[in-house]
Design brief:
Strand content: 15-25%
Strand order of the largest sheet: 7-6-5-9-8-10
Order of helices and strands: EHEHEHEHEHEHEHEEHEH
Largest sheet: 6 strands, parallel
Shape: globular
Helix content: 25-40%
Oligomer: single chain
Mean pLDDT: 88
Structural class: alpha/beta
Distance between the termini: 60 Å
């Protein structure tokens, strides 16, 4: 009898974009599952990508995909090898070799996989160097994160570190200026984000932890004009990421 892996397993990727980007990346793929009911252009594209990678494509009943993903599969899923996290020191060295600006996003205690996925997606679109997460008190890269990132995890280095404060110190030693996002900070519109930068985003409920906040060079905030006092973590991060991206682009020009 074939044993099926359960939802939440880090080796299960699901959703059309996530599976397509996985197949386009160098990450190993064990097998791909596709709903028997899927016969559209996306299905033929999936078959072509699997053939190109030499990956087994299995057509299965929709109920099986539903059980694996709680119905969030869009007709496609894939089993892959363990997610390979990048190393911070190696990432910094590689960026330097390529003559690229250092531009990192560090997530401090982020627990919602949808928020992490959305931040990874925005960071990849904005040309960031990588996203840094902690080993403890933080969501890891799961199938939900991959799907929420629209497959961006296949293209952007995700760095997992044992100690976030030490990671920030390493970045600062490399000449990176660290900006923490918090309610009591300076209006981000008054900040010049040029140079090598790192944006630190806090957890959904508690914000930045004390130690991480102490390692930030400057605290920045988004002005709140309405009745609601705060933004979703990934939305706030997206605004600040593109504010930083804009300064970096002006530098390159």
């Amino acid at each position: 009898m074939t044993q099926m892996k359960t939802q939440g397993n880090d080796n299960l990727i699901y959703g059309k974009n996530a599976v397509f980007e996985l197949l386009r990346s160098d990450r190993p793929v064990d097998s791909v599952l596709c709903s028997l009911k899927r016969t559209d252009g996306a299905y033929h594209k999936l078959r072509a990508l699997c053939r190109e990678r030499g990956v087994v494509l299995k057509e299965v009943a929709p109920d099986r995909l539903n059980r694996l993903t709680d119905g969030a599969h869009q007709g496609m899923a894939a089993f892959t090898g363990d997610f390979v996290y990048a190393d911070l020191t190696s990432s910094i060295e590689e960026q330097r070799r390529q003559g690229r600006r250092l531009f990192y996003v560090l997530c401090d205690g982020l627990e919602d996989p949808h928020n992490l996925g959305a931040i990874i997606r925005t960071a990849e679109c904005a040309g960031a160097s990588g996203v840094i997460i902690g080993e403890r008190r933080s969501v890891s890269v799961t199938g939900t994160v991959v799907k929420s990132s629209a497959g961006a995890t296949a293209h952007l280095p995700i760095i997992r570190v044992k100690n976030l404060s030490r990671a920030l110190e390493e970045l600062k030693q490399a000449g990176v200026f660290v900006y923490g996002a918090d309610m009591d900070g300076t209006n981000f519109r008054k900040i010049d984000f040029s140079g090598d930068v790192c944006l630190v985003v806090g957890s959904e409920g508690k914000g930045l932890s004390r130690l991480v906040k102490e390692h930030c060079d400057t605290i920045v905030s988004l002005p709140m004009r309405g009745q609601v006092g705060s933004l979703n973590a990934s939305v706030a991060a997206g605004i600040l990421i593109y504010a930083m991206e804009g300064c970096g682009r002006e530098q390159e020009v």
